[in-house]
Design goal:
Elements lengths: L1 H14 E2 L12 E5 L3 H8 L2 E6 L4 E5 L3 E5 L5 E6 L5 E6 L5 E6 L3 E6 L5 E5 L6 E4 L10 E5 L2 E7 L5 E8 L6 E5 L2 E5 L3 E6 L4 E7 L13 E4 L4 E6 L2 E9 L11 E10 L3 E8 L2 E7 L1 E3 L6 E3 L3 E7 L4 E9 L13 E5 L4 E6 L2 E7 L2 H10 L3 H10 L9 H14 L3 H11 L4 H13 L3 H5 L11 H14 L1 H10 L7 H14 L4 H13 L3 H11 L4 H8 L9 H7 L1 H10 L6 H7 L4 H14 L8 H11 L4 H7 L5 H10 L3 H10 L3 H12 L2 H11 L2 H11 L3 H10 L6 H6 L10 H42 L27 E5 L4 E3 L16 H6 L7 E5 L1
Antiparallel strand pairs: 1-28, 2-31, 3-4, 4-5, 5-6, 7-8, 8-9, 9-10, 11-12, 12-13, 13-14, 15-16, 16-17, 17-18, 19-20, 20-21, 21-22, 23-24, 24-27, 25-26, 27-28, 29-30, 30-31, 32-33, 32-34
Helix pairs in contact: 3-4, 4-5, 5-6, 9-10, 9-11, 10-12, 11-12, 12-13, 13-14, 15-16, 16-18, 18-19, 19-21, 20-22, 21-22, 22-23, 23-24, 23-25
Function: Plays a role in vesicle-mediated protein trafficking to lysosomal compartments including the endocytic membrane transport pathways.
Subcellular location: Cytoplasm, Cytosol; Early endosome membrane; Endosome membrane; Late endosome membrane
Family: Belongs to the VPS41 family.
Amino acid sequence: MADVEEQGRKQSEEFTDESEEEDSEEEPKLKYERLSNGVTEILQKDAASCMTVHDKFLALGTHFGKVFLLDIQGNVTQKFEISSVKINQISLDESGEHVGICSEDGKVQVFGLYTREGFHENFDCPIKVVALHPQFTRSNYKQFVTGGNKLLLYERNWLNRWKTSVLHEGEGSITAIQWRANLIAWANNVGVKIYDIGTKQRITNVLRDNVSLRPDMYPCSLCWKDNSSLIVGWGSSIKICVVKERNPTEMRDLPSRYVEIVSAFETEFFISGLAPLADQLVTLYFVKENSDHMDEEFRARPRLDIIQPLPESCEEISSDALTVRNFQDNECRDYRLEHSEGESLFYIISPKDIVVAKERDQDDHIDWLLEKKKYEEALMAAEISFKNIKRHDVQKIGMAYINHLVEKEDYDSAARKCQKVLGKNMELWENEVYRFKTIGQLKAISQYLPRGDLRLRPAIYEMILHDFLKTDYEGFATLIREWPGELYNNMAIVQAVSDHLKRDPTNRTLLTTLAELYTYDQRYDRALEIYLRLRHKDVYQLIHKHNLFSSIEDKIVLLMDFDKEKAVDMLLDNEDKLSTDRVVEELTDRPELLHVYLHKLFKRDHHKGQKYHERQIGLYAEYDRPNLLPFLRDSTHCPLEKALEVCQQRNFVEETVFLLSRMGNCRRALQMIMEELEDVDKAIEFAKEQDDAELWEDLISYSIDKPPFITGLLNNIGTHVDPILLIHRIKEGMEIPNLRDSLVKILQDYNLQILLREGCKKILVADSLSLLQKMHRTQMRGVRVDEENICESCHATILPSDMAKPFSVVVFHCRHMFHKECLPSSGTIPGVQFCNICSAKKRGPGSGILEMKK
C-alpha cells in the first residue's frame, strides 16, 4: 500500500487541479491516487459501469458484463462472467459474504461468495438496481429488492423458496436503491420514496425538484448517513431527510414514522454522487462550461467538493478538479461516488478511470507544509504527532528547516534550531559546526553549542574560541565566562591570549579574560596580579573564594588604592589571616590609608588598636579633624599630654578645651571658651557639665562687663546659680540687651521651681501616708506560731513540748522569733526592743516587737 501511495502522490498532479481555488495557500482536505494494478488492464479493454465498496475488498462491474473482485490496491482476486452487456448495479451485504448483481439484459443474480447457494432470474426488461438486506447472511433476513419498471421484494420462506412482492410500480423506471437497517430508499422518475420493511409501510415521498432534467441522464444519488438520515442529490439540488418517530397520539391511519427535511439547497453544478464525511458532505459534480471561442458547452473536469450543509445553503470547505481519463467524453450518469465508511475512502468511478480520494493524514499535512516552505509549522506538527507519522522523521524535517534558514541567511535562527533539532547527535553537531565555519558564521552557533552532560570534542570549542579571538575580543570574553573550563584545553587558550597581548599589552578585555583563564587553571596568584593591575571589582571575591590572603600581604596598598572601604572591611574581617601589625607596617608610608584602616578598627573595637592611639592623634588631626574629638572622648588609651600638644600646635580650640577639662584644668578651658571662642552658650554648657561653683564665679566675673554675656547668663543661670548674685554685681546704668525678657524668664523659672517643689511635696506626703497605712495593716496581722518555728537565738523549737507549762515568746514584725529569755537586754531606748538579726543589718520599722505569753 505504501508503494501505491507514493505512486499516487507522484500522479496527483495528473488528475487534480487546485489552481481554481481562491486561496492557493489553503491546504487541501483530500489526497488522490489512481486505482491501478489490475484495474488499469481491465479498463484498457473494458469500461467501468458500477462499483461497490466493502471494507475488505471492491466489486467492479463493467460494460461487457463482467464483475471483478479487487483488493484495495486494485489487484483482481476473482472474476465472474455475468452477462454480455452492461452491469448496472452490484450490492453487498455488511459481512461481504453475499453479492447481488443486475445487468442491462434483465439478469439478476444473488449468490454467496463462499457458498453455493444463490438466486438467478432473467427478466424481460432491464434491471437497473439491486439491493441486498444489510444482514442478508443471517437466515431470517434473506431479502433483497430489484428495480426495473417496478420495485420487487424477494424473501425466502421456510420452504427455501423465494416469495416475490411488489412494493411500488407505475412511476417509471427505478434508478437508485439504498437499503439501511429496516429502511429502503429508492428513486424513480417522480421522486424518492422510503419504505419501512419492519412495519411494511411507505413513509414518505420526496418529489423531484427540476423535472426538466432527464432522469436517465441526470440520475438521483442516494446515500444513508446513518440509520435515520438520508441524503438525496438530484440534478443540482441536495436535500437531507431525517426519519423520525411519530407521536402515538398523532398516528391515526398514518405511518408510525415520518420524514423531516432538515436541509435543502442548490449547488452550482450537477450532482453525480454523494457521501458523508462526519458532519460534512463529499459531493462529486459533473461540470459543463462555456467555450471561449464557441457558443456551445463542453464537458469539463469533474469536481470533488467538501461542503458544510446549512438549513438553506451550504459552505464550501474545499474543491478539487479531477483530471480523470476521457473526462471530455463522459456524461453525468457515467460518474459514480462510492465510499468506505470504515476508512473514509472515496472512490470516483468513471468509465476509463477510478480515482481514490482519502483524508489527508499527518504525513500529508507535513508534506504540504514542506512544499510551501513552512518548515517551522512542519517541525511543530511532526513533534506533536511523532508517534503517528510514518513517512517523516522529526530530525530530518528539522535539518531541512535549518538548511532553509541558512539559505535565507538567517544564521542566528538556524543556530538556535540546532539546539532543538540535533539533540544528542554528536556527529550532526560537529557537521553543523564545520558548515557554519565554512560560511563564516561560527559566532552564530557558538552560544547554542552543548555544554552540559553532552559535550563535543575539545577541538570544536577551541576552534570557535580561536575564531572569536581573531575578530571579537568581547565575544571571546563572553564565551570564556559562559563556557565551563573543562570544554577546551585551557593551556592552549592561555597561550593564544598571551600571544595577542604581546601585540596589545594594555587591552583590558584580554587581560580580564586571561585572569579568568588563570582562575580556571587554579593559578590564582597570576589572576590576582592582573585583577589588581586592572583594579577589577572581582578581586575581592577572588581573594575570599580562594583564601589568597597570604598572597596580598605586599599588595595591601594596591587594594586600598582601588577601593578603600572594601579593602578595609576585608582586612578587618580576616584579622586572623592578616594581623593588624602587618597591615599597619604595609601602610606606614601611606598615612592617609593608614588612618582609614585604624579609624575603622577603632570604630569596631576601642581597645584592639590601643597601641596605635598615639599615632592616630596626628592622623586624625591631619586627615579627619571632625572625628578627632569623638576619638579623644572614646579612647581610654590616648596620651592626653601628646594630644594636648598636637591640638595646641594646630590651634584646635574645641579639642584643647576638652583635653584641658579632662586633665582637670577647667578654669583654663573655660577661659579659652570665653576668650577664643567667645561663645557664652558653650561656656554656660561647660560650667553646667562641671557643676563647680568657682567656675560659675569665674564665668560671672568675666561676663560682668560684657552685656551680651550677661544676657546669656540671665537666660540660663537660674537653675544652677542664684540670679540675685549676678544681678547685684551688674553696674548701674549698664545697658543690657533684652534685660526685661531675661528678668521675666528668671521669674518664670522661679515660679516653675516653686510649683515643682510644691508638686513634689504633695506627691511625697501622699506616698508616705499610703506606705504608712500599708505598713500599719501589715503589722496588725496575726503571726502563726507552731512547732515548725524555731528560736533564732538558740535554734530550739519555739514552742515547748509541754504546752501546760507557762512560756514567753517574742515575735518581731519581721517574722523572726525568740524565746524571751534568749533575747538580750533592752537597747538604748527604754521599753523598746529590736530584732537582733534585723538590727545588725539596718534598724527599721519592721524590727518592732510582738510579745506572746502564756
